[in-house]
Design goal:
single chain; 372 residues; alpha+beta; FAD/NAD(P)-binding domain; D-Amino Acid Oxidase, Chain A, domain 2; 2 domains; 8-stranded mixed sheet; 5-stranded antiparallel sheet; 9 helices; binds flavin-adenine dinucleotide
């Protein structure tokens, strides 16, 4: 018999959500985390937005799991008092020239089952009188959440169900044994040891392709090799934070949703994230002062009252992407590797936005993949 029934690699929001869901019926579960505490990587370096599901290709995992996850997240937040706010959002065309771009976004969101409303310029201004706008789309179901509150909840559930979280343990090897269990080698502060597990779920975020490679998968052939896109934020001085009362996004230009205005649960206003492909690992998280002109231009299109003196470089996060710079967006890979002769191994690759929103739905999806 294996030491554990299930091993989840990575204690970001995804690994924790999966751990919380599966430990209910399978308490012989361990979540392995290389850092000294859970949730120290991408899951604590993001916009903390509960996305409605507007932009993703209809029928894609991104779209389905976002819509399911958003509904599930609001109920979870209500039931367990996880800090959140249904703050709502406007996608604003800053000039009449941008107005025709709203319709395809509206149609895409509607096809995903998201409730949206087209707004005239006056209707936008009646909601947000300070923004530069020619018209927009209103999303009543967009919210903000405490990512740490959500992860604390999932962590608590794992422990309550009898599961284990093992921090400061880096997975350094995965091999398949003759009896079809997996042997997992870990490095705990310089000491190498190993244990066995029937099921292995790779939720290692920025390192998910390396973990898949450890199991013997050719990640180039499988299309699992990740590219990395950094997203930086600039914070706005508190005296200007009350200029808006909900999230305001521009019409997306190239990659990403466009630098937008975010208000967190503490009422802080910031702008971001931009998209900048970087090399790694290791990753560098400082926010470059040279980005100031680009941020100034993006901010001016939403809130022209905010001047250069009102913004300071803030935080950044890095997205693990399956597409390279300039390529069309790709869907998540959530794959049970039984077709590669590795039943019991599930890889989650390219788990970028909107996965804070989708985490609970991803856990349900994995449960079905393994046990239905
Ligand atoms: C700039 C930015 C903004 C975003 N905004 C939003 C948003 O507003 N709303 C939304 O829904 N989503 C958003 N996202 C996406 C969301 O934050 C991520 O998709 C989500 O946090 C990914 O969680 P994860 O658990 O997969 O990854 P992570 O949080 O990176 O967790 C993976 C964990 O695996 C661990 N690990 C890695 N390798 C090993 C190993 N060998 N051994 C043991 N442990 C290991 C890591 O230490 C890490 O803790 C944003 C992302 C970015 C970058």
């Amino acid at each position: 018999m294996a030491d554990f029934e299930i091993t989840v690699i990575g204690a970001g929001v995804v690994g924790l959500a999966i751990g919380a869901r599966l430990s209910k019926n399978h308490p012989h579960l361990v979540v392995m985390e290389k850092n000294k505490k859970y949730g120290m990587e991408t899951s604590s370096r993001n916009s903390e937005v509960i996305h409605a599901g507007i932009y993703y290709t209809p029928g894609s995992l991104k779209a389905q799991l976002c819509v399911e996850g958003r509904t599930a997240l609001y109920s979870l937040c209500k039931q367990y008092s996880i800090a959140h706010k249904r703050i709502t959002k406007i996608i604003s065309a800053s000039t009449p020239h941008e107005l025709p771009k709203l319709e395809p976004i509206f149609n895409n969101g509607t096809a995903n089952g998201v409730s949206l409303r087209m707004l005239t310029k006056d209707e936008v201004l009646s909601l947000e009188r300070n923004i530069l706008t020619a018209g927009g789309i209103f999303s009543p179901d967009t919210g903000v959440i405490s990512a740490h509150g959500l992860m604390d909840f999932f962590h608590h559930s794992i422990i309550e169900n009898g599961g284990t979280l093992q921090e400061q343990s880096t997975v350094v090897g995965i091999s398949r044994l003759v009896n079809k269990d997996y042997e997992i080698s870990i490095n705990e502060r310089g000491n190498i040891s190993s244990f066995t597990s029937e099921i292995v779920i790779n939720a290692a975020g920025l390192y998910a392709d390396s973990i898949a490679a450890l199991s013997g998968i050719d990640i180039d052939k499988a299309g699992y090799r990740l590219a990395f896109a950094k997203g930086s934020y600039f914070a706005v001085t508190p005296s200007k934070a009350a200029l808006i009362s909900r999230l305001v996004y521009p019409v997306p230009q190239n990659e990403g949703l466009g630098v937008h205005a975010l208000i967190d649960l503490n009422g802080r206003l910031k702008f971001g994230p931009d998209v900048n492909y970087v090399e790694g690992p290791p990753f560098e998280f400082s926010v470059d002062e040279t980005k100031r002109p680009a941020f100034r231009n993006a901010i001016r299109k939403i809130l022209p009252q905010i001047s250069d003196n009102d913004i300071t470089p803030d935080m950044s996060g890095i997205r693990p992407k399956l597409q390279r710079e300039g390529e069309a967006a790709k869907d998540f890979v959530i794959h049970h590797e039984n077709d590669r002769g590795m039943s019991g191994l599930v890889n989650l690759i390219g788990i970028e936005s909107p996965v804070l929103t989708s985490s609970h739905a991803i856990a349900r999806y994995i449960d079905d993949l393994l046990y239905k």
